[in-house]
Amino acid sequence: MCIAGTRWVQKEILEKNPSSKIRVYAIWFSMLNSDERSRWDDKLMKDSRVIHLWDEARVTGRWFAKHMDPPAPREVEWDAYFLYGPDARWDKPLPSPLISWGRTIMGTRKKLETDIQPLLEGSNRQ
Predict the structure, then answer these.
(1) In whole angstroms, what is the distance from residue 27 CA to residue 30 CA?
(2) Which of 34, 85, 92, 100 could be cross-linked to 115 through a Cys-Cys bond (beta carbons 3.0 to 4.6 Å apart)?
(3) Spacing of C-alpha 27 from chain mean position
(4) What is the pTM assigned to this prediction?
(5) What phi and psi, each to the nearest 5 degrees, are found at residue 12?
């Protein structure tokens, strides 16, 4: 996630939906010179529903890039979101069902905002 995307998710999704039963897995790794772990601020998304993970070897980004259908046009997928619902399972090469995905987060934020609404509304009623 880039810093702008992180701030947007915190402000527009998490803060606006404080009772939603959602989980965000923020997987961080260095792609740019300014991305070193020593400069990483895991408090950008301070919500308790966020799990922060550091992936020094970019294993996650490489895995998603390789296993997407069609495969990503780059070796490492980054600054992207993958949206899954409560029924998603990891019993296939990719977790499914995949509701939506996009890159960059800021570039596809309207799509994410639209696609996540049914999940937010559904989790608020439970």
Answers:
(1) 10
(2) 100
(3) 8
(4) 0.87
(5) -90, -20
